[in-house]
């Protein structure tokens, strides 16, 4: 089987691979989806960082409340 035939067969199995592709060899739909996922990942990283900061503040508050309740006993 020649390369041209294999490429055609592969494109028939994976229609999103063939046809309109940009210079990097990726379809515009795939590039857009990758960019959306990168933005989603960045948002999740920010959420993780904010959550970690909030958890630290809650632990600090817990320690302060424990000190206050110990002082009133």
Descriptive key words:
mainly alpha; 73 residues; 0% strand
Please give a structural write-up.
There is one protein chain. With 73 residues, the protein is an all-alpha fold. It has helices at 3-13, 28-72. The N and C termini lie far apart (86 Å). The mean pLDDT is 80. The longest helix is centred in the last third of the chain and has 45 residues, at 28-72. It is rod-shaped. It is 77% helix and 0% strand. It has two helices and no strands.
TL;DR?
By secondary structure, the protein is mainly α. It is 77% helix and 0% strand.
Topology:
Blueprint: H1 3-13, H2 28-72
Low-confidence stretches: none
Structural class: mainly alpha
How do the helices and strands follow one another from N- to C-terminus?
Answer: HH
Report the portion of residues in β strands. Answer: under 5%
Number of strands: 0
Structural Rg: 27 Å
């Amino acid at each position: 089987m020649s390369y041209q035939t294999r490429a055609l067969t592969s494109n028939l199995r994976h229609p999103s691979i063939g046809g309109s592709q940009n210079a990097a060899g990726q379809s515009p739909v795939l590039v857009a989806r990758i960019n959306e996922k990168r933005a989603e990942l960045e948002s999740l990283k920010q959420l993780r960082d904010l959550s970690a900061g909030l958890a630290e503040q809650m632990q600090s508050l817990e320690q302060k409340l424990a000190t206050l309740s110990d002082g009133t006993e």
